Amino acid sequence: MTLADYLQAHGLTAAEFARHIGRSRSTVARWCTGQRHPDAAAMRAIMEETEGAVMPNDFFRTAT
């Protein structure tokens, strides 16, 4: 599941999610649009916050 899909499914904004993991809204927004990828610490925080719904591989999937 992409981070953007997770946020939408849970009714969260990038700003709300950012507060939960201690990052900025703009950083989370960039992750959602694929402009940037989270670093290792951020990926761990995302996995923990989403209870495994969003995993590192979800940031690197390509359309087939």
TrEMBL record:
Pfam families: HTH_31. Gene3D superfamilies: lambda repressor-like DNA-binding domains. Signal peptide: none annotated. InterPro entries: Cro/C1-type_HTH, Lambda_DNA-bd_dom_sf. Residues 3-48 form the HTH cro/C1-type domain. GO terms for molecular function: DNA binding. This is HTH cro/C1-type domain-containing protein.
